[in-house]
What does this fold into?
Amino acid sequence: MKINIAKSSGFCFGVRRAIDISKKLTGKKKKVYVLGDIVHNSFVVEDLKKIGIRKISRIKPALNSILIIRAHGAGQKTFEKARLAGYSIVDATCPKVKAIYKIAQNAEKHSKIIIIGDNNHAEVKGIAGQLKTKPLTIENSKHLPLKKLSRIKKAAVITQSTQTIENITDIMRHLKRIIPEVTLFDTTCRAFRIKQQEIRSMPKENDLMLIIGSKQSANTKRLYQISKSINKKTYWIEHAKELNRNWFKSIKSTGIMSGASTPDHITQEVVELLSRKKTTKTSGKR
Ligand code: SF4
It folds into this structure.
């Protein structure tokens, strides 16, 4: 069986950067915490725990402690709260997410902000938390807040960095019919766009697709959905132990794509287990 690993498989720039920033903080005389999961992957969270970086879900008073803000970012109120609670803040927000903040803040001066994104995702909350007025968040065209939308005269649409082109296009089609003046600021991230391009071609070129990443990861979920819509033999696993040999009966080629928060060693373990079958491996990874 041939194994083809996507060129863009695994960590994106923002996730790698946040982990590197976090690792550099160990060995200091302060306790180091991260607000929420540093990225949506339990293996990464565990690795950091081993070197003393602990996750907290809520900000409580703390002395002599560092708080890492993860790659997804956080709202301004979270920063204020953490400072008041006594933390020194290390901001590992992805620069590309920060660029979205600026676009949204500028657009807010003259338009109602609409975010196309997952309502409860940290990145979306972070974007909303930079604004003076409450934005509207839309996840998909099935759940359009029609009453609220009908009151808007001018809107600026910002997108979560990991949204798919299909979802954005579909929602925009509806918004253009309802709102007299609506401008799209496509703030999807290039790293994820490249992943999307690959995940549209690989399922056509391989008999079976494996998507590797946490079930909490929004970008992995989207990669899975795209792949599954093209190739029914698409499986989403978090680690090698979930592989099922029945999937691979009469399969000649398997494509592998890992989410932006999946560490390389997890992908490697999957590849090694598959390689115990008679395989040829091609990796686009740099
Ligand atoms: S997907 Fe893009 S915006 Fe999100 S953390 Fe990675 S590099 Fe940054």
